[in-house]
Amino acid sequence: MRRVTHSCCKKTAGCKPEGKVPDIPEQIQQELDRLGGLDALLERMPPEDELEETSRVYHALSDPLRLSVLYLIRDQPLCVCIINRFTRLSGSKLSYHLNILKESGLIEGEYHGNWIIYSLTEKGQQFVAEPK
C-alpha cells in the first residue's frame, strides 16, 4: 500500500518554502507573514542532525524499562549484574536496552576488568534529576 501525503502546497517531499502558500486560512497566512514568511519559519527549525539526536533521546526515554535503568543508576554507577536483578531480563535483551541508552548519550559504560560499570551522562542526569 502506497502512503499518500496531502499538502497545502500540492507537493510532498522536498516542499520548498517559496512565497505565499495558496489556499490556507487567512489567519494562518497573517501569522506566517508576521513571523517573516515560510523562509523565516524554516530557519527556526533545528538542523537535521539535531532533530535526529533529539529523536534518539526521546526513543530511549519512551520505554519504561529504559527509564527504570536510568533511575537505578541515578544515585550511583552500577554493573550489569545489579541492573539485571531489578529488570530480570535476559542478557541479550538488557544489552539491547543499554545500547539504546548509550547511543542516545544518556548513559556511558566504563570497563573495570571484566565488569562494565554504567553511569549517567550529564544529558542523562537532566532527565532523572531529583526534584529540588
TrEMBL record:
Keywords of this entry: DNA-binding, Transcription, Transcription regulation
Keyword Ribosomal protein: no
Residues in HTH arsR-type domain copies: 46-132
Superkingdom: Archaea
A Pfam family annotated for this UniProt entry: HTH_5
InterPro entries associated with the record: ArsR-like_HTH, HTH_ArsR_DNA-bd_dom, Metal_resp_trans_reg, WH-like_DNA-bd_sf, WH_DNA-bd_sf
GO molecular function ontology, one term from the record: DNA-binding transcription factor activity
NCBIfam families: HTH_metalloreg
UniProt-recorded name of the protein: Putative transcriptional regulator
